[in-house]
Amino acid sequence: MYFCFDPKARYLDFAGGYGVLTRLMRDRGFDFYWQDPYCKNVFARGFEWENIKGETSSGGVTAFEVLEHVPDPLGFVRSALEQARTSNLIFSTLLYEGEPPAPEKWWYYALETGQHISFFRRDTLITLANKLGLHLHTNGWLHVLTAEEINPVRFRFCSSRFARLIGAYVQLRMRSKTFDDHNVIVNRQL
Description:
The protein is an alpha/beta fold. The protein has six helices and six strands; from the N terminus they run βαββαβαββααα. The protein has helices at residues 20-28, 73-84, 122-132, 152-158, 163-173, 178-189, and strands at 10-14, 31-35, 60-64, 88-92, 135-138, 142-146. The protein starts with 9 loop residues before the first strand and ends with a helix.
């Protein structure tokens, strides 16, 4: 996000679960907010999207390990982009190639829980992007749908095995929101 989008923009973690990603991204210095109608915000309390959503559009929306849980991925993505007022979605899901794998040969079906119900190939994501008028950038597990053209070399480099080094660089460049967030929460309670 630091190299491909505006690092100072607001971001929405759509279907953000307990708020772990929102908290981690705020700790790294990104202005992240949480939203999830099915889960309690435990780790990012005070930074709910509903509290700021009318104020501005966002630089992007994230949805990590979410799309495989929804029965209507196109509707889900449209809703996420509309709520965040953005054309940038950063998400993860594991892709398969060719014919769908046999259930006993692919752990990602998660048959024991029945929670994964949508599965994708690269061409499926391209179709999704085309229906939304967006571009797809992917490395096989990390995917970006965006109206912007992202330099493919930059995207591959940032989503490669060098990501830890890049993360360390970004952490040096960004200012953590941890202590500021603490002060905001404490002052709200007074």
